[in-house]
TrEMBL record:
GO terms for biological process: cell wall organization. Hydrolyzes acetyl esters in homogalacturonan regions of pectin. In type I primary cell wall, galacturonic acid residues of pectin can be acetylated at the O-2 and O-3 positions. Decreasing the degree of acetylation of pectin gels in vitro alters their physical properties. GO terms for cellular component: plant-type cell wall. It is an enzyme of class 3 (hydrolase). The lineage of its organism: Eukaryota, Viridiplantae, Streptophyta, Embryophyta, Tracheophyta. The keyword Secreted applies. Its EC number is 3.1.1.-. GO terms for molecular function: pectin acetylesterase activity. It is found in: Secreted, Cell wall. Belongs to the pectinacetylesterase family. Keywords: Cell wall, Cell wall biogenesis/degradation, Hydrolase, Secreted. It comes from the Eukaryota. This is Pectin acetylesterase. The keyword Coiled coil does not apply.
Amino acid sequence: MKVMVVVMAMVLWILFFFTTPSYSYLYSREGLHGFEDLNLTELVYSSRMLPTSTGSNALPPPLMIPLTLIQGAAAKGAVCLDGTLPGYHLHPGYGSGANSWLIQLEGGGWCNSIRNCVYRKTTRRGSSTYMEKKLPFTGILSSKAEENPDFFNWNRVKLRYCDGASFSGDGQHEASKLNFRGQRIWLAGMEDLMSKGMSRATEALLSGCSAGGLASILHCDEFRELFPATTKVKCLSDAGFFLDAIDVSGGRTLRNMFEGVVRLQLQASLAPPSADPHGSWHDCKSNHAHCSASQIQYLQDFRNQMLNAIKSFSMSKKNGLFINSCFAHCQSERQDTWFADDSPLIESKGIAQSVGDWYFDRVRANAVDCPYPCDSTCHNLVFK
C-alpha cells in the first residue's frame, strides 16, 4: 500500500507526516540528536513539561492514567523481553471524540546484543514489572482542550514498549531467557483495543516518538488494514526517521546499530562515544551553544542530507512536513513544545496546529525552518 506522508521535523531533529489516498502518516525525528544514551533510556519529564507552580496561579496537574496489562497476551506469545505481560494506558474519549482513537507507541531506543537485552529486561523497557503504574498524559495525549485542541476528547492510548526492537521482532534466545516478541505485542495490543471499541472508530491516528516513531512507520499499513475504508486513518512518526548517516569518526554507527537489532531480533548517533573517543563532541552534545564553527557546519551538512532524503515525497501535495531547527526530541509528547504559549513556531504556526491541519485536511502542512541554530522559538535540550 502506498504511503502518503506528512513530515514534521526539526532541522537537526525531524518530524514527518506520511499519507496515502486512504490514510496518512506523520513523522518526526531528532535527526542529529547524537546522544547514545537516548537509545537506552528515554526523555524524562522536565519541569517545563509538568506544572510545578503553587498558589492561586497553580496549573492543574496532568491526568495520570493507570497501566492496563493485556490479559491473555502470554497465550499468544506476546510478552516483554523477560516474559511478563505487555500493557497500555487508555483514557476513554467522549462527545465528538467518542469514536476517534489516537494510539501512541512508546519509544525508548533499542537493544542490539544479548548483553544489552539482558540488561534491558531488568528495566521498564523490557519488563512490565518495572513499568510505572500510572503515566501523565501530556502533549498530544493531554485531556485539556487548551493543551491539545484537536485530540483532547479522543480515546487516547499509550502502548508500552518492552521488546527492544520498535514492536517488530519475533524470536527468542532460550539460553538468555529473552523473548523478542514485539510484533506479537503490537498485534495483541491492537486486538485488545479493537475489542474495547476501536473497531467502531470513525477516525484513527497512530503516533509514536523515537523508537516508537519508527514503529509507527513499520506498522502504518497494518493499522490501516484494521479499519474499513470509511475510517479516516493516518499515522504520525515523531523523531522516528533515522538516516544511514556517516558519524563524526567517518563510521556508520547507526547502520551497525540496526544491523545488530535485525540480526538479534528482527544507537542512533552521529557522535557516539565509540566515534568520539577523545570527547571533542561532548560539550557540543550537552549544549548546542558550545558547538564550534566546524561542528555547526557538520550539523548543517546533516540537515541538508535529511532534506534531500525527504525531497521526493515532500513534493506531493498530499504529503507534508514540519522541519524546525531545534535541539530537541519527541516534541509531540512534551506539553511545552506541543501546544503552549511559547511553543516552537515556523511562520507563526506551532506543531499541534500543523498536525491538526494535516490530519483534518484543513491546509497543507509543509514547513521548513531556516538553518540551525536560527530559530529563537526553540526549546533546546541542554544537559548539565
